[in-house]
Amino acid sequence: MSVTPSRVYAARLVGLPIFDPQGDQVGKVRDLVVSMRSESAQPRVLGMVAEVFGRRRIFVPMTRVTNIDSGQVYTTGLLNMRRFEQRSTETLVIGEMLDRTVTVISSGVSGTVYDVAMERSRTRDWVLSRVAIREPSKALRRRGQTHVVEWNDVRGLARTDEKQGATHLVEALNDMRPADAASILHDLPVERRTAVALALDDERLADVLEELPEEDQVGILERLDSERAADVLEEMSADDAADLIADLPPETQEVLLRLMEPDEAEDVRRLMKYVENTAGAMMTPEPVILGPDATVADALAHVRNPDLTPALASMVYICRQPLETPTGKLLGVAHIQRLLREPPSSLVAGAVDDTLEHLRPEATIDQVAAHLATYNLVAAPVVDEDRRLLGAVTVDDLLDHMLPNNWRDRAASSGNPGVTP
Fold it and tell me: Which range of residues forms the domain containing residue 74?
């Protein structure tokens, strides 16, 4: 085990795995909690906010941290699984300090905070000791000059900054998986969360929104102007966008749907017509669809699309024209495992499974679950009475709708010793 470095930067800690003494991962670092005593006194680091299974946030006191190195954090293993609740006297380093505008006393230089370092004091407490600052960009220079200064040489960190930006926190979020970024965003104060969401680009915001609870989704979308909200909805998967729009007032729904691109809006409108928790309401209207004259090489090229989820990439749907949903007659499906055994130049029609039972859009959530379980599938086609393909239901869509709203809290409180975060 390596020795804890004398100085550790907060932004580099985010996302690091946390291990117990037996070497089992128990969570990930999400933030640092500090106690701000005065403008000049170095704040004491009280502990870390850790994310455990189910995105639950808990507090890990620094007294429980035994070692920190470049790739992991070690603890005593004695962790309180109670959900972290920030107190009024506490400040989150990543969530609240980054992007604050500060001034260096000795030089008069002003800039924004992009990182903060902590060190061990003589009393063996961890304290914030250094501040990394970036000046505003000047002329043609892409980025302003950076400085790392002593904590007591900086003014502006102990007060709330009403004009606090989001540049550096956004940079940190862009390096995370959407689910991890959503967890950070969820725990921010409402105004800060809105500022950060506004600073994300449309595609990234769409990815993060899909991972947030419904209340957060609605709250963020309502803070966007209508045109921006429509752009973000277009970047979301149609089923997620339909679920989100359904939570909005009817007049807002219509405004956003009119502002969306007609093709995107049509998919969403179609999904919103189905009864909640049916195959039609859960399905994705844009699975991988090919005609019978496509080759195996064509099919493999389509499923390599990195934007496809593993479940959607597991199966190709072979249909008559038109190839946009609702398609012509569904001829069958081609499983990716089968395609990998076929010559690339052969027709995909030769690998079609035409014996698979199909789902109807009115199938209930229990019927969908039974269907996937019976045939060992991670995705299944949904067809109308004329056997035209309407979309595909995936196992991740099913789980999103089957699990109770508070499943994450239940999972965390029960411990789930067989699951690694």
Answer: 9-84
